[in-house]
């Protein structure tokens, strides 16, 4: 049985589905800190072909910076939606309903905010996890 998780932006004008998520991790890089406005970003990893926008495609905005994954957000409310890693999408877990996953890892811990206290049992990696 394949799992589908439904998601939406803050204003609800963009909705999307994540089919067969591979897992969830937490990125502590400075870029994710700025994108989320917090200590980093919990992200659900999914094959790009398993991510589908169900409403509001015309409101989606993209920001691309050379050398980094592009990010997508709602042009109406500004909600962060996902990072485009090519074959994989890194979907912002805060926009998903009923996520039954727990972070399997913390990455980019070398760049975490000085006030960020990481808890839990998930392994921590200074940069990318070995299988990334």
What secondary-structure arrangement, pairings included, does this model have?
Blueprint lengths: L3 E5 L6 E5 L3 E5 L2 H7 L4 E7 L3 E5 L4 E4 L6 E5 L5 E5 L3 E5 L13 E2 L25
Parallel strand pairs: 3-10
Antiparallel strand pairs: 1-2, 2-5, 3-4, 4-9, 6-7, 7-8, 8-9
Give the mean pLDDT.
Answer: 92
Overall structural class, as computed from helix and strand content, comes to mainly beta
The biggest beta sheet, please?
7 strands, mixed
Shape from CA axes? Answer: globular
Number of helices: 1
- Poorly predicted ranges (pLDDT <50, ≥5 residues)? none
Order of helices and strands: EEEHEEEEEEE
Structural account:
By secondary structure, the protein is mainly β. Helix content is 5%, strand content 36%. It has one helix and ten strands. It has one helix at 30-36; strands at 4-8, 15-19, 23-27, 41-47, 51-55, 60-63, 70-74, 80-84, 88-92, 106-107. The strands form two sheets. It has a seven-stranded mixed beta sheet. The protein has a three-stranded antiparallel beta sheet with strand order 1-2-5, with no helix packed on it. Strand 6 (60-63) and strand 7 form a beta hairpin. The model has no long low-confidence stretch (mean pLDDT 92).
